[in-house]
Write a structure and sequence with these properties.
Elements: E1 3-9, E2 15-21, E3 24-26, E4 44-48, E5 51-57, E6 67-73, E7 79-85, E8 95-98, E9 102-106, H1 110-114, E10 118-119, E11 128-137, H2 141-146, E12 149-152, E13 156-166, E14 171-177, E15 184-189
Parallel strand pairs: 5-15, 9-10
Antiparallel strand pairs: 1-2, 2-3, 4-9, 5-8, 6-7, 6-11, 11-13, 12-15, 13-14
Amino acid sequence: HNVAVTVTDNYTGVLNISVKVDGTPVTPNDQVFGGIDFLNTYHTEADTVITAKKEMKGLKLEDGAFTFTLKGKINEKYSVDQTKKNEGTDKDGLGIVTFDSLKFAVNPTDDQKSKGYIDVKDLPLNDAGHYEFKLVLAEDTTDLDKKDIRLEGADHYDITVNVDYNKADGKLTVGITPNNVDFKFTNIKNS
């Protein structure tokens, strides 16, 4: 028999499948499949990038002058422990700190797994996850005191990474709370 299977993605999270056997449209109820099994796997992915800003008052901010850490545990299998330095500046002259993307996928491919994607089915909650992270200025304050530099404002931020997989429409979203906030660390050179 000549079997033709057409799969159409209508971008709603559901794949439409039509089958013709010897040119005649059939459905799974037509009993012509006799031992033919089809396995379809749906893949989707989403990610988020956490960034911070560094301000240095009274002294020029040099690239790589400050170290920051982002830490959090998603479950027993996945945790995050990244260390980055400030690099470059934005339009306002603030130093930029960019952490590696936090990547999530539904049924990740082997390539995605090798790139560090977290498989949503491994997450502890059924359809959504809220995972706590701490973003910290990781400098030894004793060294800063010796340089007559003091911290002004926050020395860390608590961030929640929100993962939501809607099985009805197949959409995976990842975001952070608080959102639309500059995670800004400020140091002042005492005069």
